[in-house]
Amino acid sequence: MTNPLLFLLAALVLVAIPGPNHLYIATRSIGEGRRAGVVSALGVETGTLVHIAAAAAGLSAVVAASATAFGFLRYAGAAYLVYLAYRTLRGRDDAGEPELEPQPLRRVYLDGMLVNVLNPKVVLFFLAFLPQFVDQGAGAVPLQIAVMGIVTALIGLLSDIGYALAAGSIGTWLRTRPVFRRRQRHATGLVYLGLGAAAVFAVPGGRRA
What we know:
By secondary structure, the protein is an all-alpha fold. Helix 3 (34-57) runs parallel beside helix 6 (105-117). It has one domain (21-201). It is 78% helix and 0% strand. The mean pLDDT is 84. It is globular and about 60 Å long.
């Protein structure tokens, strides 16, 4: 790895600043509580580990080079977010009022993992970011990519958990407000729809989503 300090600084800047993953985790934490937010963060970063393994094995480059494979991943990710929106919006309590019920934590974890695994911008992030810091003279390039990817994932996890805890505190306060309780399901579903639209129309960028 060339210049580890520069790599760490770049990873902190690109991973810790707010992005779609943070918005997803914060939305889950506000709507379903801190535990759901933290479990979502664990699921998201498990998805990151899948991307790291793919990047180290060279599979990410294959996906990015194939318009068909990349398009499939992009639309699959958008479709899953739309499904989450549908699942959120369709529920009603006995009185017919919107009421967002916490999902089982296993489901929350799987949702977070799939949202990130199906995010094509993460593929592009690792292809664009990690190779900049690979030391070709040191050999074992896949191992270097794996190590840097795991460090990036750990930074991301700490950042994600921070957002989850902060959003959970906000959610605890908001749930005491009758207006928020009435609109909570709709607001959550709209966020998921917005993230799905962003997955379809986003232009590849230089930071992790």
